[in-house]
Design brief:
Number of domains: 2
Helix content: 55-70%
Largest sheet: 2 strands, antiparallel
Mean pLDDT: 78
Radius of gyration: 31 Å
Strand order of the largest sheet: 1-2
Shape: elongated
Distance between the termini: 79 Å
Order of helices and strands: HHHHHHEEHHHHHHHHHHHH
Length: about 450
């Protein structure tokens, strides 16, 4: 009977590693593949990583090949502590740290070889799969066999590995599937909440498992309790990350909806003038490109995009007859046009959660030399984002068709931007606009 249980134990244990490896491959593919055939290396890495990690965990937590090396390193680094008779604790800590470093290494290899530029999401997947695997890893020092748990007795091992089968499935369906959408988006995420908890667990498991396995006096109750709590913690992680990813995706959906509403509003304002349709979206796009060229953070780039979308919202208060006039505006009509920054500011100031949205609306017609409107601000008195939008706004005005002319040639636009550096425009921002123009060899950036 014992021989049969041991055989079933081995089959189930190795089956778990194969299953976990396949699920890691599917998970990484779902989150990072992007349909590129050149990334066939992904399959090779995915199929090798988990068995290697599991093997390292097994030999480190038993008396295998790596343990003597780790022991020697630990004894050398902490010889004062070792001399006091605490060798086991030192080896346990060194083992745990070493295992965490191995996980970091494989995540780094993935990121570098695949060029995903998504190091932290990749690291999260590796640490969680690593945490699940080490919870189901044990090398029996006597028989040399690898089991799915460290809790003695084939029945306990089989039950544990079946739990971890279920854990892998739960992790995939509850976490990886919603996480895949998150990993493909450029959204601001505090990755510490994903990485630090399972990393600490992995480290502590390495330490505690090593201490327990080195202690020949550990009874079955201790082993079973250790089993229960480690499996429970893994399942709590899976559920917690399910909730966190769900909340982030929900917030992102709300954010996406907000952007779509702003874009729809911008289209509505631009529709008042048949010659400026799409103007606000283009200004927002150019403003974001300038912000990126200026080296601003992703958050600032998004914020200036939103401000650009709504910079002309004040035109809602300007009569259509003036906006669509095909003759030169009278002084009175021009005075009405000049009210739109103030009107836009008043409208957007009502959005209490985003008071910054009103910045672009009020000051995008200010000039660097102080001759603009409505407040005649000059130089750095003009908010930075408004200075960016001012350049983008003027660029789009010159590169869009009007009732009285077609869009201007690229060299003329470049010359005008260059000529007004330091007078109408912030010189640094204008210089970045010229760089964007020079990069646009095919003159794609026009209406």
């Amino acid at each position: 009977m014992d021989a049969l249980l041991n055989m079933v134990d081995e089959v189930v244990s190795y089956g778990f590693y194969v299953f976990s490896t396949v699920m890691l491959y599917i998970s990484v593919k779902k989150c990072f593949w992007d349909g590129k055939k050149s990334r066939v290396i992904l399959f090779i890495l995915s199929t090798l990583t988990n068995p290697v990690l599991s093997l390292l965990a097994s030999v480190m937590f038993g008396a295998g090949v790596i343990s003597p090396i780790v022991d020697d390193i630990a004894v050398y680094l902490f010889r004062d502590i070792v001399s006091s008779g605490k060798t086991d604790i030192v080896v346990a800590i060194t083992t745990g740290v070493f295992y965490v470093l191995v996980i970091f290494f494989f995540a780094w290899i993935f990121e570098k070889w695949l060029g995903t530029k998504k190091y932290l999401p990749m690291l999260f997947l590796h640490i969680m799969f690593g945490a699940i695997n080490i919870t189901a890893t044990y090398r029996d020092a006597d028989s040399g066999l690898y089991y799915a748990s460290s809790y003695g007795g084939s029945v306990a091992n089989i039950v544990t590995v079946l739990f971890m089968f279920f854990g892998v499935l739960m992790f995939y369906f509850l976490d990886v599937k919603p996480f895949s959408g998150l990993s493909r988006l450029n959204v601001k995420v505090n990755w510490k909440i994903f990485i630090i908890p399972p990393m600490i667990y992995t480290l502590l498991f390495g330490v505690l498992a090593t201490v327990i396995l080195m202690d020949s006096s550990a009874d079955s109750t201790t082993l079973i309790l250790f089993c229960f709590f480690t499996v429970l913690i893994v399942f709590l992680f899976i559920w917690a990350f399910h909730v966190i990813v769900g909340n982030i995706n929900a917030n992102n959906e709300i954010k996406t909806l907000s952007v779509e509403v702003m874009e729809a509003l911008a289209h509505t304002i631009d529709a008042k003038d048949e010659y400026t349709r799409g103007h606000s979206v283009r200004v927002a796009k150019y403003s974001r490109m300038l912000a990126q060229k200026l080296g601003l953070s992703e958050e600032d780039c998004e914020n200036v995009y939103y401000m650009g979308l709504l910079h002309d919202i004040g035109k809602i208060g300007v009569p259509n007859a003036i906006i669509n006039s095909k003759t030169k505006l009278t002084d009175e009509e021009y005075a009405v046009i000049k009210t739109h920054p103030g009107v836009g500011f008043d409208i957007l100031a009502e959005i209490k959660s985003r008071p910054d949205l009103s910045i672009g609306a009020r000051w995008h017609h200010e000039r660097y030399d102080g001759k603009g409107y409505p407040d005649k601000k000059a130089g750095e008195e003009i908010p930075y984002f408004a200075r960016i939008i001012a350049v983008a706004d003027t660029y789009d005005a010159m590169t869009s068709n009007r009732s009285y002319r077609n869009y201007l040639p690229q060299d003329v636009v470049r010359s005008e931007i260059e000529k007004n550096m330091g007078t109408q425009f912030d010189p640094k921002i204008a210089k970045c606009m010229i760089e964007l123009i020079d990069e646009d060899k095919a003159y794609v950036m026009h209406e």
